[in-house]
Write a structure and sequence with these properties.
mainly alpha, two-stranded antiparallel ribbon, 5 helices
Length: about 100
Amino acid sequence: MNIWIAIALTAVGCYVVKLVGLLVPAGALERPLVQRLAALLPVALLAALTAQQTFSMNGALVLDARAAGLGAAALALVLRAPFLVVVGAAVVVTAGIRAIGG
């Protein structure tokens, strides 16, 4: 398949999804269940993506420096550190473990 065909199909698909979202009646979007799901879904997807990127490599479960960096970030969050400190802690721990050969 030509790459431009794939790009065009993706663009059309995105447009159709956007159009379907605009056609949903407002009453359906104002239901409490829908609002709770809309609030929680991005968090769940981001958590799943983070876990998948941290703990897998080539389809296998791995525990390496990335897991330690995630742990450092989680600890910084528990201690209510600012966002840049959280990211910095994760970077420093991950890089430190990789530097010592872990």
